[in-house]
Design brief:
Number of helices: 8
Strand content: 25-35%
Shape: elongated
Order of helices and strands: HHHEEEHEHEEHHEHEEEE
Distance between the termini: 14 Å
Largest sheet: 6 strands, antiparallel
Structural class: alpha+beta
Strand order of the largest sheet: 4-5-6-9-8-7
Helix content: 25-40%
Length: 241
Amino acid sequence: MLRDLLARIVDGEFAAGTALPSETKLAERYGVARGTVRNALSGLEDRGMVTPVQGAGWIVQSTLHTQSFVELRSFAQWARSKGMTPGGLVHTSEPGPASALEARKLRVAARSPVLRVTRTRTLDGRIVMLERTAYPEWMMPHISAIPADESSVVDVMQREFGITTAHADHAIDAVPASSADAALLGVRRSSPLLRVRRTSFTSGGRPIEFGEDRYLPDTVTFQVQASSVGNTLTRGEFSAG
C-alpha cells in the first residue's frame, strides 16, 4: 500500500497542496484496516510527502524528494537525510581487464586491471536500483575490504581510507532492462529503466570509479536546472520517490 500511494503521488495523481482520500476510503480501496492506512500515511509523513491537517485530512506536501548533484551526497547519505533506510548487497565482484570505455573514463591504459562490482540498492527494504561500478587498480584493495552488505561504500572510503569524492560527472538516459537487469530487479526483460552513468574524482582529479546505475522507473525522478553562468549547464536535482 505504501509503495502504491507513494507512486501515485510521484506520478502526479495527487498534486502538492491537495488532500488525499480519507483514511476510510483508502482502507476500502486497499482492503486493509484503518490502522494499516494510518501507518502507511505516517511513513509518507516521515519522508516529507504528506502532513496531517486538522479538519482537512492528509495534505500532499511534496511529490518529490530532491538532492542537488553539487552536494555530492551518496545514495545512502541522501536516503538517511530523508528518513529512509538505505541498503546494499554485492552480487558479483570480479577483476578483469578494462574495456575501452572503462579505460577512457578511468584514465588508465587499455586492458589495465579493474574491479567490476554489481550490487542492488534498497530503500526501506525495497530494491530500487542496480549499480554496476568499475574501480581502477589503486582502488581494488579498498573496495575488496568492504563488506558485501555495506549500505554506503562512500562513507567507508572516506572514514576508513581517507578517499573523498570532490566532483563527479553524470549522464542520464533511459534503457531497456537486460536479462541480467530483470533477474536482479524483479522486472520483465526490456522494461524501461532510468540509467545514470557517473564518473567520480578526488580533489586532485584522480578517477575513483566509473559506474552505471539503473533505477526502477517508479522510484526516481531527475530534475535539471540550467544556468547561464559561465555558459554552462548545471545539473540540478536528484530525487527518488
